[in-house]
Amino acid sequence: MTTTSKPGTAGGPGTEPDRLPRVLRALAVVERLGNALPHPFWLFWILAAILGVASAVLAAAGVSVVSPADGEEVVVQNLFSGEGLAMAVETAVDNFAGFGPMGTIVAVIMGVAIAERTGFLAAAMKVSVSRVPVSWVVFAVAFAGTVSHVASAAAYIILVPLGGLAFRAVGKSPILGIVVAYTSIASGYDASPIPTPNDAIFAGITTEAARIIDPTAYVSPVSNWYFNIGSSLLLAIVITLVTNLVLAKRPDLDADPDANLDDVASLELTPRDRSALRRAMLAGAVALAAIVAAVLPSSSPLRGEGGSLTESPFLGGIAAVVAVMFALVGTVYGMRSGSIATAADVPRLMAEGVRQMAPVLVLFFAIAQFLQYFTWTRIGDVIAVNSANALETTGVPIWIVFLGILALLSLVNVLVTSGSAMWAMAAPVVVPMLMLLDVPAETTQALFRIADSGSTAITPMSPYFIMALGFLQRYRKDAGIGTLASYTLPLAVCMTIAWTLLFFAWWGLGIPLGPGAPVR
């Protein structure tokens, strides 16, 4: 896969390297800086060492604050002390085993793995982008991109090439299809109308951060669900408008006449796959109806005290429900399509999904230790309380604070493209700080979603950026990093602006972000 930019590929024919737009030259600098960063696993151990030094200095200085939770004095503890060493050794395994997202993400992935590896998700995506009128193909691909996040990283592998093929099939530029599919996944990664594995990860990290202030805090994986549904629709509309009004007018959309498309996937489903998809969707509909019927009665054992749905066993175990739903439709599809031959294939596919998550689980070990160290030193309390007091004293409007956090995290996201890694670093500071300003943890998490997604489509630090470039080069061999960035930049910027405006409208109107999750 060629990844080097060539003269004439970033800004159109004849563009010299020294005349590239400033944004694209800046991306080259970002790429060099990002490449200099260590792997996120080591980054958290480096941060732990920095935390240890800071805790030693602050503890020696006797730094403390009064906890707003109970009025008690909170003193910074030295991580490099004997007590700190004992804590680190004694809690290492428990930190990892008890890390909020661990069990949830593994359970969800086992279910999603069946749906993905049997071919159900690929078939559903093909149908979603192939059976729409020509005038709706841009919206269909864009919306499919937001839905495809249930497949995690596989979304890029499945939908990006299908986007190019869908556009080509209706007489549109396949280059534009690649761009639309990639950007809708990358810059809308945290906006999905269907609960995804990321929702479980973020909710777990947010819960751990919120407990710095409130030990009983709990953030559900569907705490931003309503906001995600609205966000996915808005982003698909924005992508459609920008694509049709701006990108479609570019003069460099023609594919190479000799492009080799032999390895490009087909949008067609075999009769057997179509039959399998129908059976799987029917099974899913029946299961969903059964779940609704079980939860609907106020006396249902799946409801909480007094018939509450917001604090209920159902929402508490929503990750298991999602996992079972995906496992069900995937199994039904696989049995009919032939991708599941025996009952033994089901646990095998689940195990393959867990193996795919191994790098994330390894990263979770480092994240879990860092978060425990951060909590134990009480530095998070000091930063949160002092920051909140400073903001109250200066009278800075909360919307300015929101914009500042959004801008800072968006910049960090250009270099640290792992959403879980970035949120693990930021949440212990911003979540408690905003809670002290009466901003719910769920609202801070919704704000983070925008920052974690917006700039992803333009940063060459994302491995999926390079993957998308490879798909683009099937249609245009001389395409380089600058080529893809010049296409995705207008979409990413407009999506971020629109998404931010939606957040402020949601917050201003006081609409709940999800079940039992007030926005303010």
Proportion of residues in extended strands: under 5%
Uncertain regions spanning at least 5 consecutive residues: 1-19
Task: Characterize the overall form.
Answer: globular
How many helices does DSSP assign?
Answer: 21
**N-to-C terminal Cα separation, in Å?**
48 Å
Radius of gyration, in Å, reads 24 Å
Helix proportion of residues, in percent?
A: 55-70%
The largest sheet has its strands arranged as 1-2
Oligomer: single chain
How would you classify the helix and strand content by structural class? mainly alpha
Number of strands: 2
Mean pLDDT: 81
Q: What string gives the helices and strands in order?
A: HHEEHHHHHHHHHHHHHHHHHHH
For the sheet with most strands, the description reads: 2 strands, antiparallel
